[in-house]
């Protein structure tokens, strides 16, 4: 149901309206451009990003590298630079892994072109025909404390010391699988390796390894898609069947968080990053999941402006911005400013502000309830009942001046001053 009032609501006394206005003005929030949004989305319609499926993200020199299904992008100082098979030696446009090597070199893993390095001027390609690689599908890249490069492929795990190659696979090392998904470096240069159906492989600093599976260690699942290390040096794993797994020692005992025993809404998880002590997890169907101790919070398309609940990649910069790569909606920059709890509890905010006459005001999250607009003397000029509303075209009677917009429903009420110019 929709109801519009373009005249004063006589059922509310003027004194009451002025009292409301006085309270409202205490909550003045200034949001003057898109950069002040909580969530900013970059997609193929509003930016130069080459594709809306963002598989991997890496930070380097205050810039961001983005790997998509249709090329590599660098985003720095709000400018885009695109590298693909049409304008560079990067002949494989399907990017799956990125790793910064100091301030200048970026390592790039592709689906069918092998491994590339780029130093800002020169490109180098490593593939099955010119290197020790046995597979041109690169799933993950990491660099250990001795500057060795570790590469996850579907034909085993590889290490490149910048001169020689070493590998581990089923044929030569009796691994349980060749399907390696991820590799993470520990605080003492140990390596944690995730597989599909082959358990988890732990390498010590001398590259001696042990395999941990559901049979020999009570690991809850033999597959791992992503790994992160916490502030205490302990590894956390994402499993497609078991959810979130934490190693309490070395090779177990394991703590397991899933959709049956915790606040985890789904076991379909893709990526994770620590933001201080808080764990940020990207899911396949539930958006972003925040684990802070025993507390679980969620950021998704229902409670925010996150454009897609299918999250493929996460990177958190030094300003605590959360960069999110999605499957369908491109890249998002999330600036919570404070905590996820404060963001979710503070209601709806509007942008841009100021707004053009007859323009459209957008909301930081979907809203269902009643929207009201008051002028600067407390007169109600607009009232609308909305369902899952994300934006509103200003009515004709909202001319230049200062106004207050309120959002209210059975759960909450929030207010904001806006300027129409």
The pLDDT mean sits at 89
Describe the sheet with the most strands.
Answer: 5 strands, antiparallel
Total number of helical segments?
3
- The first-to-last residue Cα distance is 30 Å
Do you know the CATH architecture of the largest domain? 7 Propeller
Task: Give the uncertain stretches in residue-range form.
Answer: 1-35
Provide the CATH topology of the largest domain. Answer: Methylamine Dehydrogenase, Chain H
The tally of domains stands at 2
Proportion of helical residues = under 10%
The proportion of residues in beta strands is over 45%
CATH top level of the largest domain?
Answer: Mainly Beta
Explain how this protein is built.
This protein is mainly beta. The chain folds into 2 domains: 14-33 and 347-420, Immunoglobulin-like; 35-345, YVTN repeat-like/Quinoprotein amine dehydrogenase (Methylamine Dehydrogenase, Chain H), CATH 2.130.10. The protein is built from 3 helices and 33 strands. It has helices at residues 14-25, 170-173, 340-345, and strands at residues 39-42, 54-60, 63-68, 71-76, 79-83, 95-101, 105-110, 115-118, 123-126, 138-143, 149-153, 156-160, 165-168, 180-185, 191-195, 200-203, 209-212, 226-229, 235-239, 243-247, 254-257, 269-275, 278-283, 288-292, 295-299, 311-316, 322-326, 331-334, 350-351, 360-374, 380-393, 401-408, 413-420. The strands form 8 sheets. Strands 29, 30, 31, 32 and 33 form a 5-stranded antiparallel β-sheet that branches. Strands 1-28-27-26 form a 4-stranded antiparallel β-sheet, with no helix packed on it. The longest helix has 12 residues, at 14-25. 39% of the residues are buried. Mean pLDDT is 89; it is low at 1-35.
